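USER: My hope is that you can spare some time for a protein that puzzles me. I am handing you a single protein, as its sequence and its fold in token form. Walk me, if you will, through where the backbone shape changes along the chain. The protein I mean follows directly.
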Amino acid sequence: MVFIQSYCEANTSISHTWVDAGIAPCFYFTLVPTILLSISFFLGTVHCICYQKYGTSMEPKFIPRSRLYGFQLALTVLLLLQFLGGMVWRAASSGELPGYVVLYCCFSTLGWAWALALLRMERWRVPLMDRTRGHSTALLVFWALAFSAENLAFVSWYSPHWWWDLETTQKEVQFALWLIRYVCSGLLFFIGLKAPGLPRRPYMLLINEDERDVENSAQSLLGRTEENQSTWQGFRKKVRLLVPYMWPRGNIILQVLVLLCLGLLGVERAINVFVPIYYKNIVNELTDGSSWPTVASTVGIYVGLKFLQGGGAGASGFVSNMRSFLWIRVQQFTNRVVQVRLFAHLHSLSLRWHLGRKTGDVLRSIDRGTSSINSLLSYIVFSIFPTIADIVISIIYFVTYFNAWFGLIVFICMTLYLTLTIIITEWRTKYRRDMNLQDNAAKSKAVDSLLNFETVKYYNAENYEVSRFEDAILKYQASEWKTQASLAFLNQTQNVIIGSGLLAGSLLCAYFVTEGKFQVGDFVLFGTYIIQLYTPLNWFGTYYRMIQNSFIDMESMFKLFEEEEEVKDDVNAGNLLYKLGRVEFDNVYFSYINGKEILRDVSFTVLPGQTVALVGPSGSGKSTIIRLLFRFYNVQGGCIRIDGQDISKVKQTSLRAHIGVVPQDTVLFNDTIRENIRYGRITSSDREVEEAALAADIHDKIMTFPEGYDTQVGERGLKLSGGEKQRVAIARTILKAPQIILLDEATSALDTQTERNIQASLAKVCTNHTTIVVAHRLSTIIGADQILVISDGRIAERGRHEELLSKGGLYADMWMKQQQAHDSDSSSDTEAKDRKPEKLQPPSTSSAHQGH
């Protein structure tokens, strides 16, 4: 028969809070469930009322599936069963129940049942206003208090009324039940920080039909960034990307260096423990009157350890300096690999991405991203992990060699410090991210303005550009102020916690010294150890902030890595087997933007050695055909073949090795003329470069420059005229010696005489080569084997020059207009004086041939 004899056990009272070196169980198991139930019902009721009044039920499709959420429910149910099972077991084993046990089980069961109800309500209901990411304050506070309450049991480590000695079966069962509560409440709190199973974005945003428009307002130039998104989101993915950079595969020497650095890291942890111990020994030996040799040897060991340790935080000791020295090569490897991989990835991206990029943003993202990787590896491996290890070691040491109170003080201070640091840093993350966006915007404006300085001067817009740049700087500084102000607030909070813990521990230690329980050396040990511990801990907030900042700085770089290649080689793609150079377009469809087709059912064939010209009004799709053949884009329909091989099934490098392009807009590298021409074939000699320049009719012009072929062309070739740049591009293509030649308005920037000279040079180069020419001046392509007239993305006419003129269609109309413009420009002075308009007759085909 089970009965309640009294509220507390015999010889105890609820008024006794401290019994036999520990908290009285009756007092503890009354206070804890009462506080938890009060918090649970008060905050939970307010929370429930707000959700019922200002919330709505979520549609199931918007509720994310999460195994962690199911794990949360399972842990809560396990806790409920543990409370009920513990009370039943105690009643069955002893036949009587103290009143506080019944109260503890009932109150705890009610509190956790209410928490379970709140957890499920948050899963299915959501406030209509924008919610912050994560669980409600009510649940987080409840879980945190429950976990903290279980940690209070450590204070009674030496009390015989608790279960730590495990002397009886009853204590073993109580210890097992406590262990279940400790693990479950701790897991619920830490998993609750991640808030699995809850939407990551405001619910109204999810159901808004214009979701994309809303998100684009917070979109960076390199990708979306959500203001409330935690930088720890996708942490596993980011770390998985970082690990290969830390462990240098294939380089045994660097791998040995990494292992040595990790070994030195462990040595530092051991030294940090022994330094305060030997300092305590020195004080005790001096006060006890030990012999000089004993004191001298202890001092020698202490000084040696201090030499190895350095300034207390391992910042300038021999071991840390040696570790930093060995890590240099690993850091250089990481920096090199990241930059090279990112550079190669950017070059692998499609022309569409490069046309839409902003160079200033990309450069800033690369700079910040590569430097942040080195910072992350250094902070995580050599700062965060060692600091956490020092904290754990210190708690164990104080509990073992002092008593549980000191371990509790250190644990509470560490928990408060780390928790508030994380919460405040997460809160101020949005300011740092906004500052980066404003910084990108300011640098982008500066880069754009400087690259287009000619346009600025054409329109006297210097003051306007300066004003725009100043406005961008002001916006950046406004975000910077918020970042710095929130940082100062965080630092003050950390200082208060550290000071409070140091005060409490020092007073307690001093009290035990005055009571004769500790020696003076123990007080010195505590002060030395705790200050040694707080020094890196004071930097812990900085490390965490730097890691946060590094993750933020890496976001743009990771987005660059995530940019997918639009044009990829097939898995089984082989090399192009060039035979004769037959080019076929078979029912090709293409569009840059969905719904707006540029090419529609384009079909034509260029036989080996033939020259085909593409003409038509601007925007008709002529240059697009050139880009598709060079495979800057993939076609959306149809097929392009070279010698019967689909170019989408061969490797891009092998395809482009056989094709030479002279583009309409030539951009040169900021290097010498010689190196710009040599870019056509990197291995060519100086003589071959000069022969290509002769063929492009630019050799004589180059020799008139003071430095000849060593003349610097300037950024993007701005020191050369348009015609000179285009002739350098032609020389570059001639040097490449391709089998298929693509000329995209190759002579558009040249005067008439130079155009004729280059046409003769190109005629020699294109002899017996398959050639496709995009031309605006029809006079340059009258000798083409076939002329295709492109209009509205279709081939409107095709044939030779004479055939198209005789048809009297689009080509004939274009020819007539160009001839009228040419005759008007070359009219005589006599006609200009008379100023009498005369009706121009269209020239005949024969006369056209004679004039050109």
Observations:
- The first strand starts at residue 55 and ends at 57.
- The chain has four domains: 25-203, 234-562, 583-658+740-851, 666-737.
- Residues 307 and 317 are 6 Å apart (CA to CA).
